[in-house]
User: Fold these one by one.
Assistant:
Number 1:
Amino acid sequence: MKILIVDDFSTMRRIIKNLLRDLGFNNTEEADDGNTGLPKLQTGNFDFLVTDWNMPGMTGIDLLRAVRADEKLKTLPVLMVTAEAKKEQIVLAAQEGVNGYIVKPFTAQTLKEKIDKIFERIENA
Amino acid sequence: MSSDSNQLDKSALLEKAKCLVEMLESEQTEDAAIEANIDEIMNIRESSLFQELGKMTREIHDSIMNFRMDSRVADLAHSDIPDAKDRLEYVIEMTEKSANTVLAVVEKGTPVAEKLSGQAQQLSEQWGRFRRRELSADELRSMGQEVENFFSESETMMTELLAGFTEVLMAQDFQDLTGQIIRKVIKLVDEIENNLVELVRIQGGHKITDKADVKKDEREALDGPQVPGKESSDEVMQGQDDVDDLLASLGF
């Protein structure tokens, strides 16, 4: 399982990376916004994307749109981990095809639950 | 200064000047009449000066009124600055919480690590005596028991320490959230600076040619981290449970 973590704050990337490692996901890469993340996704054979929303350059929602518009990437599971907590934003992310949504600050348990749920749903589909 | 309003009334001035020359050339003219004529010439000059002064006063007045009417400035003073203060308070709160969490883990974990290291040292000494065949049968049995205890205890302690590491890891999430909040405050300070610069320009009597551009793209419209007690409307989720409920209602 290869996972890409996209967040403009390196501390948050490290936190997510370490939490994923604790959950048994050792194969992770990082990018600091959509502009650097998208090319990685297109060439890197990733199985899962964890992205922030508010980033300089390409935002997380635009990255999600780009992923869903890309023939090769459109089925990639995307988990959004963001401080944006407005109802309309969550609804928008859902409409754009996000697979899970976590608001910061979050717990290790929440991350585990959401990832489990996403893969459970994919397996059952 | 515009040239037309500033211009002296030259024809009136010329008339008065000719009159003055005539008066000075004629020997019958009284001093008082000459002085009156000079006064009139000065009046012509002063009236154009006053006109210009009046115009400048009007410009400054209009500029100041416009500046005060600009609702953005009012917003800055009434809501944005107090809001920024609350947000900065929240930054202090979050960094303090994180520091306390990390310190607590260290305080809790240090004795655990010390105990582990103490027991390992003790066992190592006994192991040395065993190798030198200095242990009695009873002591050997007791060492066996201690080794067993050490294995089970060290497992529990390690689990405790690892849980502490996860806690320390999670406590670092403040950096992202406070970073976003501080960036917002920096933007606000920037805007206040622009407004102050504008105020200084008004004071200087210069015309304002370009207004501080308040651009709002999609990213800047994002709200960032929720600050407790702020934006607590129905439109803002109060936590992960709210988000889960909302997503569930959307069929997730």
Number 2:
Amino acid sequence: MNALQRHRALTRIWASDPGWRGWFTTVNHTDLGRMFLFTAGFFFIVGGILAMLIRAQLASPRSAFVGPEVYNQLFTMHGTLMMFLFAIPFFEGLAVYLLPKILGTRDLAFPRLTAYGFWCYVFGGSMMIFALLAGIAPDSGWFMYPPLSSTLGGPGINSDFWLIGITFVEISAISAAVEITVTILRYRAPGMRLSQMPIFAWYALVTAVMILTGFPPLILGSILLELERAFGMPFFQVAEGGDSLLWQHLFWLFGHPEVYIIFLPAAGAISMILPVMARTTLLGYGWIVAAAVSLGVLSFGLWVHHMFTTGIPHMGLAFFSAASTLVAVPTAVQIFAWIGTLWRGSPRMHLPMLWILGFFATFVIGGLTGVMVAVVPFDWQVHDTYFIVAHLHYVLIGGFVFPMLGALYYWMPHFIGRKTYFKLGYTAFWLVFAGFHGTFLLLHWAGLLGMRRRIDTYDSGQGWEAINLLASVSSFVMAIGFALVLIDVVVNAVVAVRGSRDPWGAGTLEWAMPTPAAAYNFASLPVISSRDPLYETPDLPVRIARGEGYLGDPARGRRETLTVDISTGQPRHVVVFPGNTAFPMMMSAITGLFFLGLLIKAYWLVPVAAAGVAACAIRWVWSLGTRTPEGALPVGRGEALPTAAEVSDPPGWWGSLFLLLADGTFFGSLLFGYAFLWTIAPNWPPPAYAEPDMALALLAAAGAVVAAGGVRLGGGAGPVAGSMAGPVAGLAGMAALAAACVLVLTRAPDPTAHAYDATLWVLIGYALFHLGLAMLMTLVLWARRRAGFVPATRGGERRIVALWTGYGAAVSVVALLVTCLPGLAP
Amino acid sequence: MRDILRLSLPLTFWLAAFSAVYGLQGLVCSSRWTPLLEGWPGRTLLLVAVLAALAGSAGLLMALRSRRWGSGSAFVRNTSIALALAALVATAWTLMPVLVASRCL
């Protein structure tokens, strides 16, 4: 088979459906990456228009351009769209598009999950846009502090749109994070060791794990606040034992890592682009990896620095002040590594480089003002002023938008397969750069003069007029610059001439394929032995096209790729991917009905939609694997490997593991909230605690022991490993635990009476949900075994069920203990 | 997976220790937990926790340097040691306020 025949055969297998239908049925990462980027770009434009309306309002004192009700919606939606519907999805889009290409594989780990996440993002984002157009958009600020956002301060539906819409969108972030993590760890080119991964993959890995551990506190907070708003469960109402500060803790447990979730992918893009622009290799690869990991973890220890003015004791303030200054160190390590790379190389001033230099100038200023506000006395002076607004825009626009525009121009030849011929981008850069600093450098000054954020208008005579007028004019200059970027991209995409394969002379694998990329990425999977394979083996693209790598023979006629060992990159299994299907879109639409039911208070719709989602999930699982064992399959280069469906650690096991990481963080945040209320909230203790008795204790203990035995049997490799003994024992144990939970609820007080009662219902409800989920999984496993599916009989599905059973049993025991133990106290 | 754990464990330990000491400070300053903590001077309790965090962090550093627990890959070994060192410094720096700041004011 020659290269052209191979290309045609692979294209037949991997191509998306033709025409408009392909938009809805594609599960290909190239298509979905572009769709994510396009949709995120749309939300950036909407958020930008809202910013212009804000600046139009503030250009002059006593402006009557919009009233306070509309203004509140404008700034809330500006922040919400930019943070949740632009920045995070833009990273997801870039990662979805790029990762398989730079890692040397053919698609992401779970293609249907990519599509499901994308459609959840679209439907959730549409909810927010509808609210904006209907004039009922959220209006309590993008961090939604209660009581302003609770029924006390916002009785309308506005806050519900935020709480429900953003939670819906976050399904997309969690989905993307799971598959980015699994893809980076298991789906690489054969031979690619951890030390040989492109640096962007390290940043994406850290970011994805941060999403898995950073988003759950916000999802929890949103659920608790919505429960309070809809059903009166008083988590944030002081009179009933709640505390509005709990929301601040949960929000900023997410909110501060969010800043780094936004910054780190941009830093990853810089670390990819800068060495190519400087015609050298990256200086200090290992140090940069260590710095990225450090930033990722340290950022979780900073959340209270957003709460310095809430009356926290000095020692607590000092902990977080120290941690906030510390985070500058790994940031500086990266900056110096980049400067060293520039110093070592011979930089070329192409457009991507210009945006990166813009990043340096801007982000360093934002970082330094960040150190200023990490110092408690200074923060007390500028908290909630325009100094903070200016600082966060320096960090987010300088640290994310500038590098991402550099990345857009760097990878644009890859996206569109054309040269970036027209030079409008240079003019656009200077307009954006000058407009940005004209806007936000001045606003630091307004903040220092006492201008508070979120005011819809101001009186003259406070020294703010000239600053605001100049800032508004500059902001429109910046907007014109962004509009020119858009025009430049569209014009280049439509009319520029065809480009060469590797226009920048880069060494990473995404440039080893013709552009725009074929649906299958690599005609054969290359064997990698260096960090810049194209520098080491310049004829690698030809070898790939000739089929000299793995899986170069498409004879089996299905979508296949390889998984590898995490550390060594040695090939381990053959993965068979699903084909085109509209199923993920349908499932996300049904998921949307679940959220819509909550939003419009049509509660009958909620269980119906939940049942629909469960039915879809079962159908999803039912299509996995075959009923006939395939054994070891030839994969090229004289090797044969088993399919992932027939091994004990299939990708689904890894996906479950990382999903449980997010789930465990959610549960941990719930326990933190419970402990916080116990320790801090006024009006405790509650009137009464749940009182356990011997029957409850015996039921729970027996359930825990039997479930643990089931997990041990189901997850191990002993003599009964292939049987249903483990899952059946697990099922029995879970049933006993579920009975114990129901027993607690039957004796539980009214959940609206006190925050303790409300928390008890949520903790036990969480346990019951997970027990139900694990029991459902066990039943599906049993049904699949009876139907003769190979993954259920000899593959890893039993271990996946054991994982979920163990988790469900563990959280049930913990939930029962923490809710019932107080009742035993004298 | 072990290499990923070697890279992620040191700073995760810092985060756990940091959060635990912050939580402990909340407990020692709350009247609700006084019966449980009776007989323990608050600052002593905090100092013991900080020392335990420092010892744990130092132990991790030593383990990652050892032949038994360290990685066979030079890249993972060097990076994990750098991260363990960073975690040790972070523990000392961020928990230093236990020595100098007022406890519950």
Number 3:
Amino acid sequence: MADLGKPLGMGIKEMAEMVLTAMAESIADAVRAFLMEINAQPVYTVHEVLEDTPIDPASALIIGGPAPQISQYMARALDLPCRVPAHYGVANAVGAAVARVTTSVTLQADTERGVAVIPEANIERRITPRFSMEEAVDLGRQILEEQARHMGADQGDLATVITEQAMFHMIRQGRITGENIRLKLSVVPGLVPQWADQDDPER
Amino acid sequence: MILGLDVGGTQTDAVLVAGNQVVRTTKTPTGDDLLKTLKAAIDHTLDDVDARQIERMGFSTTMAINAIVQDRLEPAGMIVSAGPGMDPGWFAVGPSYHVVDGCIDHQGYEVEPLDKDGMADAVSQIRESHIRVIGVVGKFSVRNPIHEHQMTTWIGDEFLHLAMGHQVSGALNFPRRITTTYLNAALYPIQAQFSEALNHLLDKKGLSAPRYLLKPDGGTVLLSQGNQSPARMAQSGPAASVMGALALDDCKGTTLVLDIGGTTTDMAVILDGAPLMNPHGIRLGGYQTLIRSLLTHSLGLGGDSEVRIDGRGVLRVGPQRQGPPKALDGPVPTPTDAMIALDLLNVGIRKPPKQRWRISGNPSVWESKRWRKWF
């Protein structure tokens, strides 16, 4: 730090302050670019698509080895309240430990062709011309849960959501020839029950 | 207890979790040999713990992404069919890429049967190139996978692994489907080898609990189920940060998550406990895929980044990393040195003032247990 500061006529502490401020500013610049990119298109969570909902963080959670040391500099650079959780230095290993199984399937049913396809699970089923959205959801959920268990999910460890759902008529020469159902179901990211179900979380 | 392990660029972090308590944390330097690193981290963490107490294990590794960015992929043959429209030749990938006639339309009807002679010709060319893994993709295979099944039947079982395009994702995106299928074929041998070696290592330690690998979407999959589509586990590091954030904090409201490491800073956004998802699919090295992932961004800047004054007298931090911080005998000053200079961090050798003193423990690692809390 002394070598770095001398040519600039700065003391060690002054130089060190400047380095951490510059680092925080660089990270904050990248954060602003990241947020601009996010806000330039519809935003997806596992639950929904958010159009016209600007993503504007109200706070920042800082993890990683230098989190406590850089946190106050980040708060200044981002102009946001920053907090550092317990076990900040190994947060990613905690994530690897307690993340549960996720998976998703897409169901496309075509009553004209008389078939429902779930490509991710290699499933093709013959369906009747009356195949309904309800039946599609039941089939989709059943296959999704089978797939999740196959991947290692425990019973009762399956938070499933429908992320896309659409049904439209297929029309040929002015006549309705069938229904097209499209459905996407997911087991959403979450924490294993051993961690999530405790009353007194270590937070 | 649950054993969790995250292999980072410079450090491998491990934790033992009992209920919702983190009961042990360790850090081990990441070496060139992934298995040796994992073994060292496990030994370091389990130490006196009875292996039978471990009920679950979760791993986030850099195995697949390193193979991709270091160009250590197995040569994979590709056979695709499309029909009218964009020339699939534009999406050619790998050393032996073949387009065969045949067409399924967007609704799933067969418009033109698959060209059996063309297939035989493609397979013999791939065989002659001594290629061991193969991928097959039809443009509308998610609507009707019959051509991919036909290709699979005709190819038979002479290859070590065959990856099918329709199993990648339900989304319609032909170029990304080709790329993802290619990666699933090209990553297969090293993924299978890694799984076998990891299984062997864990078995030898008497760790018989279920073994999970983390995926970039923040979820896990059993190690034993991972080989079929290895690309979906590539690049799990940023997802590990987000899931860790969710585990250690309520993440109410709109929360920015910053994981500041030695070499990189990963960022993500969580909306009331739900992480933002990447709408298309993750980018792995130069490959755009259909693999579901969280929306994250990695910046080449961390505690060990190089600090320098550039030609115009402007202070620059990163993106290069030249080695450990200067106070830990590294070649150049880093933000970590600045933290030491400001008494924020209590490791390493502090040069000025004149006395040189070495403080506590193994200075070559960020050892959280040994840090003094300054905040």
Number 4:
Amino acid sequence: MPDALIYDHVRTPRGRGRPDGALHEVSSAELGAQVLRALARRSSLDTALIDDVVFGCAQPVGEQGGNIGRAAVLQAGYAQSVAGQQVHRFCASALEAVNAAAAQIMTGQSLAAIGGGVESMSRTAMGADSGAWSADPWVAYQNHFAPQGIGADLIATLEGFSRNDVDSFAVESQRRAAHAWAGGYFKGSIEPVRDVLGDILLDRDEFMRPGTTLAALADLKPSFTGLGLAGFDAIALQQYPQVEAIEHVHTGGNSSGIVDGSAAVLLGNREFGTAIGRAPRARIKAFASIGSEPTIMLTAPGPVTRKLLKRCGMSVKDIDLFEINEAFAAVVMRFMRELELDPARVNVNGGAIAMGHPLGATGAIILGTVLDELERRDLGTALITLCAGNGLGTATIIERL
Amino acid sequence: MNALKSTVSPSETLRVEVHADGIALIMLDVPGRPMNVVSPEFIDDMIAVIERVAADPGIRGAVITSAKPAFMAGADLKYIATLAGGAISSSEAFAFSQKPSVAMHRRLETCGKPFVAAINGLALGGGYELCLACHYRVIVDTPKAVVGLPEVTVGLLPGSGGTQRLPRMIGVEASLPYLLEGKAVGPAEALAAGLVDAIVPPADLIPSAKRWLLASPDAVRPWDKKGYKATGGLLNPVIATAMTMRYAAIAARTNHNYPAPIAILDCVFEGTMMPFDKALRLESKYFAKLLCDPVSRNLIRTTFLNKTEAGKLARRPPNVATLEVKKLGVLGAGMMGAGIAFVAASAGIEVVLLDREITLAEKGRHRAAELLTKDVQQGKKTQAQADVIVARIAPAVDYSGLQGCDLVVEAVFEDMAIKANATRKTEAVISAQAIVASNTSTLPISELATASCRPGQFIGLHFFSPVERMPLVEVVVGKQTSETTLANALDFVAQLKMTPIVVNDSRGFYTSRVFQTFIHEGMLLLEGGVSPALIENAAKFAGFPVGPLALLDEVTIELPWKIIQESAAALGAAFKKPAAYDVMRRMLEELKRPGKRYGQGFYDYPEGGKKRLWPGLAQAFPVAPTQPTLEAVKIRLLYIQALETVRCLEEGVLIHPADADVGALLAWGFPSWTGGPLSLIETVGVRRFVATCDELVGTAGPRFTPSDALRDKARRGLGYYAS
């Protein structure tokens, strides 16, 4: 079986996902195209060598609809022969896109492919694509839909994480992210986003609040109390009747930030490396996805990690660094508790609480971030995982060569 | 008025006149009933009239109104009950909805001639659906003329186009409160919401309807016109948000016990995306599903038919002259006595409210005034009306004040000796015909009657607290209570506009006895290591208003404990410790947590905060490592009550299954989706119920042993109600 090798990756800085955010004036297709152009430029790539571009997107409607993957390919000026597609695994979309691109290579059906994703949350708001699971009354009723924030608060309640616990986690995420930026750890993979004149719109993560304190976070109001009262707390308790009441501990300060961003990973087999004259940086060792209980929604990272490690004959000890998307503080805290992980090996450069979570792009971003960190620390293996809507979870193990 | 051109010979359920101006006036007048209801005969008659209007070139349009004070109530629920809950197959139910009813309304709407609903009074359910099918709706400006679609309250949906026409007329979101909550509204709100098109004075009802018809209106509904745009479903973000939030509210409120609300929401959501006739077929499918569900049968049978029958005194011995209580005595002006005085005074009865000190008696009257203040503030009564009611209550300390009372309700302290004394003093002054009723909740009536010099005129009238909000009275027949006394006591309950059930004397009667099994089972679950949150949630998710532990905290454990001590004293060697005896003893004596009043019970009551389960429960009653499923806990809480109810019926404490079911719903909030404890057994299926109880004997204890009679019913496939 050919190896799916990682030759390069690049990401945009993340812009605040609001109309006043720096990237709001950039369309989703253009945001994705800038990342693709950067990949091509950095490897002096003959793009005709690329068989497919697989892009994740979690709100594939409006300007992000109609196959944003192919739109970005054409917008980037890639060869017309490069195919394009869009995958939707909610927040794990971009990691799934990387895995899908890798699968094409591993099965010998593609020489090279790009996996990545794009999400402009300032332009296509969360919820824009609605969907049966949350809004078809019968489907929602049968499946006990509750918004993810309710699930996050339920996790905190079940695990006994207090407001102070989750806020403390958020402070640490901010600290690590600030430290990583200060140390230039992200520099090699950030592609500034440019406007129509070619001037730089944004070259660093706009959402970050370095120096965030516990006291400042403690002032924030819980985000999901209102939804809880609207009926979703009761719906969650119907599934978790051992819980007396859900503690609403998550706020804007200890949940992932709403941002715009894009990222892409260049994958190919060995022959592709020879053809472009570049050495591979790592290989995709294995990947898996899983479904878990959809009402709590966000607890799949544990099971999908165990499933993947088992298939690979590995244990958590064989993984040098873990990267789990910081959807909510409690998600990461539960993951660490469940797998008995040393926090010093998890999200070492911070995560989405500090830097933001452009839904359909994050999987590729964090895969790139942890690859850079493996190289910086000269370590071998990392596991990347994300919880995703409707109880889904995806995980990927990468290995430096 | 136009001269009559011709009169069509009347059908059974309606009359038709064709006036010289070419307008047909259709007057609904179902014979032998105070109210027009939708029946197969009515639909046949309507179809004939519609065809006549359509075919007669001399008829320009038609006005539908009623010859009775009300326009039309909904379907005949007595008839619907015979079809509900599996009596007919789902395809039969679908055909039942589609063929005569939906087709009739659709023909009316599309026959080419305009129809106006001239709503002269209440139009509910099928009655209002008929109005919706008309091309225009005029309503009289009187408060009694309310319109609405209450089908959801009996577990059904408006199955004659109501779920489709209303959202198309006033918008999906705007229609949902009317369809999901079943709320009925008067003319002003109806007009504002678009439920009707005009409000007119009564005298102008028919003329205004005619004026509209004579102005050559369009007889094609918007959804039958070319180019009509459907909602687009989830492509419309407003609909998407509305569906998510409505679903959540429904799931949270119904706990998945009531199938109608979500079916209605889905029917509106799906149907409004479709062409109209397809949508009507979908509506009929959902209607059929609901009609075949036992919940609709349970709701119709218990909350409507049997509750109405009870209100009409179904268990009243015949051939006894009706008593009208003109003057009532109430002994004891506490919470219960004051409440009884209030409801009686509200019903126009003069009340002597007696307590041992005049200040106490006056306090009782003051409570009535307080309750009325709310009514006045909310505009339900004028201050003058309120004053008249309060003035009917005369505080007193001297028993001589009871002279002339037709009936005296004793609501003094729950103590045999005190009650006996009150009875003797009362009987010394009241007339020989007057009745003495005890409001005891637990003491045996026959024993209390031993203090009476005329036990035939002694009876139990067990009111519930708070009286003004609890519509039930448990009428307890003592060993010597006469038929006349029972009949007249029931007359009194009817006078109060409350609902009576009739039971025979027994410790705890029916309601207290079965209710106790609920709270005891809650404590046994706790003792058995079930997580307290799971116990409380299981009760709530089964449909009880509050969990058993919270309930115990409300009344304090002292109350059931006292009842147990009394039983122990009364029964001597025959006394059997109730299963939860130890939990109560430990909560009271070891843990010193009697209940809410003391700031600590099963819950903590932080000042200014929400109550939370006491964390120390985990040490006092260690939580088992493996927990039962939610369903298993619900079953224990429900089934133990159903079994005790069966015992009450078999022992003759209960006289009729309907009293068991109606009483359970009204007395302690037994979940209405079940139809009551006996209907619950029928809903589960007697055979399955018995089999589950047999399993519970092994896992939970012998108190779940089904009786022989119940086993016999299971074997023979019988239920509690003749189907």
